[in-house]
């Protein structure tokens, strides 16, 4: 069956398992992921038609696995029996196999329009697999799986016996698994057969958020479901932050354990969602949010969305923020600046604080409370310079009013008048230099708006010889403007702390 090309440009409402009316919206594709979906679908359909296939979809936390899996699910289910399992939401049940099998059966039942009844045998076999210790736990597990007590005979001595005998009996457990595999196979056949040509093989079982689960649960989930992995015509896709999962495995089996080979045994292949350009992501996010920034009183002045893109990209790249954190910082920044009224806000410093607050709360506290020294020579305290140097230096293009802010001529005490050789234009500046200058001017709000010696030297030197400015020198040109912005740290602190409630 040919799969229509994926058109993911528009936002859609998530309508899969766990969806609530008016709930989650999946943004339009900003990462060119449709290409991946098309490739993976074609590949897995070819692989999975005859045999079973287990794919590990890998990407770091916040890089877009859940978005991808959900969006993909919504397309796949039109052509293939498809099951979506959020392992994390199901973490409660304490029994991975119950979670997976009950989700598979429930969702395949939906796919067949509820036309296939639960066969009698399956209930007792499922019960046989539960690793619960007693009737009460068993009952609550059944409830949580969304079934009725009446689906199962769990009353009286029989149930106790069932629990006791089946849980401890390995042979029985093995047979139960074989039986359930057959059942799943038959359910898939039912879904394809009853669909009157709409659905085809293979079935897709997409399992997300394993890396959000408790380590023991995640490992147990993997080890349990590997028993049902080998059903012909069924493709399993497990989305994980594979490096995180390897840590989890080492928590269980010890530091020296070769978690990579261990994981390798579960999967036929690993597919890594390509790393993304944060700039592109931010660019599209800003377009999507249709932000009106004409009246925002900020520096650098937001003349168009590119100014915001430059500032946000520089800061989020500086901290190597994940996509999720980047989007969070963007939303929080927007919420706070559209509400802000007061003197011109230092946007770069504000975005920096939002990101720092996400990245390292202790450092954030020291900065907003003004307790972090600007220099690095304090015997005990970390200095702001050292903090900045822990992360990646960034340069970006920024409009500086080098002429308007300083005037056409600059008067030097006892040294005559020099023409200001600089103009108002875009300069390539250093994030680090701007942040250090901003923080300094905030720690000393009493400073008058004098020129720094560096700035004066630059004017003098540059008026005698015209050459290209270095990034550091260009950044110095912003000092005058920086000193004229809102300089009370508490203003910034309040803005950040109001907006962090926005999750
Ligand atoms: N292709 C995409 N287009 C637009 N936004 C995306 C895309 N992929 C992810 N996002 C957004 O990035 C953030 C993190 O994505 P998510 O899927 O939750 O990451 P993960 O599951 O890998 O931790 C979410 O806010 C999500 O909406
Ligand atoms: Mg996720």
From TrEMBL:
It comes from the Bacteria. Residues 33-329 form the KAP NTPase domain. It holds the Pfam family KAP_NTPase. Gene3D superfamilies: P-loop containing nucleotide triphosphate hydrolases (3.40.50.300). This is NTPase KAP. It comes from Aeromonas popoffii.
